[in-house]
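Reopening closed ticket. The problem is back. First fold of the pair:
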Amino acid sequence: MSAAVSYERVRDQLSRLKLDTSLANLDGTLERAQKEEKLTVEVLDELLAMELAARFERRIETNRKLAGLPSFKTIESFDFQAQPEVPKATIEELSTLRFLHQGENVLLLGPCGVGKTHLATGLAVAALARGHRVYFLTLHELVTKSRVARERNRLGSFLQMLLRPELLVLDEIGYLPLERADATCFFELVNKRYQQQKSIVLTSNKSFGQWDEIFPDAALATALLDRLLHRATTINIRGESYRLRHRRQAGLATPPLNHGGVLPTN
């Protein structure tokens, strides 16, 4: 069999096996191999390595789209100087994802605007980059979706979907009180992930002592915290909101609150 026939046969077989990256890089790899006098096995190794790398990148991109991240923020882009209350060494340790492999939780507490969601997103991005499945949703989204699932008698399937990812991020806990059915669903989700030793990254603007304001009864709040805190790193962030600081630095007045504590509308 001539070299030309063998070449066309290899191209055809790569195409039929859907090894698209190997096919796209075949000519360049063969040219370099000829110049550098590489062995056939080295050529195969190079082509397969490129194919595996491309598939890994595609899988990460697919997982990223399915994760529901509100933005693409990394730990590296977090401004630790602007928020000195955030323990940088602890965050860098969490970025190794040892907590994920050990089935531990990360609880980020603090007022609005101090970087909790940025840090939670950064840990999610780090997990995605290493091939882990991640799902991100706010408590409001959890409540809304669980109510729809209950109405369709699919709550079990919905909770099962939230058990699949290695990392679940629950954002904005505490901005709204929960009705009993919603609180029970939240507890059931946390309890099942606790039993399976799967990690949760959670952000809240409430201290743990204020969680009875979120839940319809204190016993449920206590049981939930017991499971969240058993294997967890808790980070309390104090400081000024990024947005308020930027407004002040820009010479803009801080919008006043009305008597009900709600921003006025025009």
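Second fold of the pair, where the issue appears:
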Amino acid sequence: MTKTSIRFTDLFRYWRDLPHQRAAMAILAEQIPIEALSRDSEWFKVWSQAGKQPASSRGNPLSVPWFSQMDSATDQAARMCFSSSCAMLASFLRPGSLLGPNGDDQYLRTVRQYGDTTDAAAQLSALASYGIQATFTQKASFATIETQIDAGIPVPCGYLHRGPVGAPTGGHWLIVCGYDYTHLIVHDPFGEADLISGATVAPVARFAYYSRKNFGRRWMVEGEGTGWAIIAQQ
């Protein structure tokens, strides 16, 4: 018989503080090693930060519109993650510049005036045409993301989304809309990724929580401060 499991975060996704849920949590607490709940544990250090959420001048997460690359009316759907992510950036920073649920198709047309959807230089030129000055870096870190979010600017990031987390492969782009102490809050235009296995587990990834631990291994694959990102100005 095959055993099935659930992600621990799903316990809280459906939490309504009902009697049967409290009873179930009491059973779970009895099964957790006591040292894991000590005041010196990493869990307690994070938990005790309740009420100390990182602040952003425009909210955290930022209210970034979401585009799915897979509903594109073009022949580029499977390979336009970079354009879809930058389109979300443009739509947020320049409201009304891209219209409708397929605004990323409009943005892609602009990109193709300058080059291929996978070309960072073409993306920067397309953003500039919307009045957004940006740079491409291969030296981003979590601190880079936090600085941008705190300034009210979402961050497109390139990472390896396929294969197991210990040996990732397959370049992909998403946009980070917010963060907390343990996770990044993202719009992933392809769908929600399982960061452990590299599988896609849901077609929609709007304000999805990606753990820093596992996203970092796929994003900063050459070590701290080696993440690919688009850094925009207001």
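Update: turned out to be a display glitch only; the data is intact. The mean pLDDT is 89. The beta strands are 134-140, 155-162, 169-179, 183-187, 192-193, 200-202, 208-211, 227-232. Please close again.
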